[in-house]
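Hi there,

I know you've been waiting on this one. I reran it after we fixed the sequence typo, so this is the corrected version. Both the input and the resulting structure follow.
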Amino acid sequence: MHEIEISESPAGAIIPVHAQPGARRTQVVGAHGGAVKIAVRAKAEGGKANQALIDVIAKIMAVPKSSCEIIGGAAHRQKRVLVHGISAAAARSALQRAWPK
């Protein structure tokens, strides 16, 4: 978990994410190149996978979906997600709870 490079901005925590759309299950998979790898069942069509990713991150962080925003890489697997109103430490703690055993 320590290899995830979560940064802090005035608006909240910025989490690097490697998305895996079209997966069999929606779940946190682990670390991938300094990012948290999240698999989602939704296909990468019409923003469905991005919305599923936001849903997962909001649930993990225990914030409303409206507090999560993709600020980079919306059309790519490598994304940066801003979670408004939480610190990098709080985001790291929430990810640790969701981390695969």
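Quick highlight: The mean pLDDT is 95.

Best,
R. S.
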